[in-house]
Design goal:
single chain, 17% strand, binds 4'-phosphopantetheine
């Protein structure tokens, strides 16, 4: 539970954690867990991206994220399209949560955060770092390793590992 949570809270802080989550990794989960501790409510929002051909369908990603975030009562899984800041406004979120793994993430993330601020100055982007053990982990690498027959144990939750095995036997 976040620090200002509880029956007396006047101004609950809602944060959006947006992404493709194709698939959700242990790095995402690490960040979600950190987010649940400082925000009252965390909405994990999956982008419906019509341009990219995902490995997992939107409903598969919703199912997997729902399952792995079940331990946290203040986490919700949702789908969005269009502008992230418009979605955040609609959900009364004041924060966009993003993970930064390495310096290489920073430039792209800074650009997005500043553009989002230009579009909607009332919404703050908060960056958090996942545990070092996940600093080299990405959904893209997980998909590639699975496709090429490598082991993804420890990189993704067991439910995702099982589904990946059936996707790319
Ligand atoms: O997991 P990803 O692919 O790094 O997430 C990227 C995401 C979903 C955060 C970004 O593509 C996004 O916010 N898309 C929504 C469209 C939008 O608002 N674009 C302007 C960003 S400045």
């Amino acid at each position: 539970m976040a620090a200002n949570a509880g029956p007396m809270q006047k101004n609950p802080i809602v944060a959006i954690y947006p992404g493709s989550f194709d698939p959700v990794t242990n790095g995402h989960l690490d960040l979600i867990e950190r987010g649940t501790k400082i925000f009252d409510r965390l909405i994990v929002a999956i982008l419906r991206n019509l341009e990219k051909e995902p490995l997992f369908s939107l409903s598969e990603r919703v199912e997997m994220l729902g399952e792995v975030t079940r331990p946290w009562s203040n986490v919700e899984v949702d789908v969005f399209d269009g502008l992230l800041v418009a979605y955040a406004r609609k959900r009364n979120a004041r924060v966009i949560l993003r993970g930064i793994r390495a310096i290489s993430d920073y430039e792209y993330e800074l650009q997005m955060a500043l553009m989002n601020r230009k579009l909607e100055s009332q919404i703050e982007t908060v960056f958090m770092m996942p545990a070092e053990a996940y600093s080299y982990l990405s959904s893209k690498l997980v998909r590639e390793i699975a496709r090429l027959g490598g082991s993804i144990t420890g990189l993704v939750p067991p439910v995702v590992e099982q589904r990946l095995r059936t996707k790319v036997p």
